[in-house]
Amino acid sequence: MIKYQDLTSGSNFFLMAGPCAIEDEAMALRIAEHITRITERLGIPYIFKGSYRKANRSRVDSFTGIGDERALKILAKVRETFDVPVVTDIHETVEAEMAAEYVDVLQIPAFLCRQTDLIAAAARTGKMVNIKKGQFLGASGMEHAARKVTDMGNNQVILTERGNSFGYSDLVVDFTNIPTMRATGFPTVMDVTHSLQRPNQSSGVTGGKPELIETIAKAAIAVGADGLFIETHPEPAIAKSDGANMLRLDLLEGLLERLVRLRQAII
């Protein structure tokens, strides 16, 4: 199983990938098996991603999860079955210790990246902490978010770029944010799929532009991103969360092959 120091020690980028939300055990294991096979062949350090609960929803009737304990146990089974670390989001301080029993990386959602108590609670677990940059925040502000983790005695910080709000219903990616965040000394990730969201749609369901996934991923590798974050699903059209901007699972292998060649060309 990869460790924090492995994220930037090799010549390749690392990958955080999986479904937006844990829907059931069979789906999670299927996705993890597929991605593990690809990443092992390509030499890509891999962290399985799955949200055990979705707290940031547009509507009260939106899918939030299958139950905390059930979903967390599925994440733990993925870790044990495939010997890969797993990452999930937390939303309140009381969730940090609970989730840390099952996962290796605690993720701070973008809208919560300034929540000091939440970041500190995640840091105190001793787990890796991935902080997503808020859509409202400049890249330079992420150094202060990271220091909240290190001030707790935990140096295992990952920073993730996911675009900035542009008007009311779109996001744009400023790729200068990648080197700015990397200058903090912490591994920096490009959240490829969430940066292509189209929030605040009149339907109350977030839209997306998945046809640009490869464009964003290639640009991120070209400017030196240490890792990529990609949500993927066998059938995004029927996914229970964020299907509009996810990558179809059978398209991932070809994309990663092209990204590995690009990475090799620029290092």
Account of the 3D structure:
With 267 residues, the protein is α/β, with parallel strands linked by helices. The chain has a single domain (4-266), classed as TIM Barrel. 34% of the residues lie in helices and 18% in strands. It contains eight helices and 13 strands. The protein has helices at residues 25-42, 68-82, 93-100, 116-124, 142-150, 177-182, 213-222, 252-266; strands spanning 14-18, 46-49, 86-89, 105-108, 128-132, 157-161, 164-165, 171-172, 188-191, 197-198, 207-208, 227-233, 247-248. The chain has an eight-stranded parallel beta barrel with strand order 1-2-3-4-5-6-9-12, surrounded by six helices. A hairpin with a 5-residue loop joins strand 7 and strand 8 (171-172). Helix 1 runs parallel beside helix 2 (68-82), helix 3 packs parallel to helix 4 (116-124) and helix 4 crosses helix 5 (142-150). The longest helix is centred in the N-terminal third of the chain and has 18 residues, at 25-42. The chain is globular, with a radius of gyration of 17 Å. The relative contact order is 0.15. The model has no long low-confidence stretch (mean pLDDT 93).
Element layout with pairings:
Elements: E1 14-18, H1 25-42, E2 46-49, H2 68-82, E3 86-89, H3 93-100, E4 105-108, H4 116-124, E5 128-132, H5 142-150, E6 157-161, E7 164-165, E8 171-172, H6 177-182, E9 188-191, E10 197-198, E11 207-208, H7 213-222, E12 227-233, E13 247-248, H8 252-266
Parallel strand pairs: 1-2, 1-12, 2-3, 3-4, 4-5, 5-6, 6-9, 9-12, 12-13
Antiparallel strand pairs: 7-8, 10-11
Helix pairs in contact: 1-2, 1-8, 3-4, 4-5, 7-8
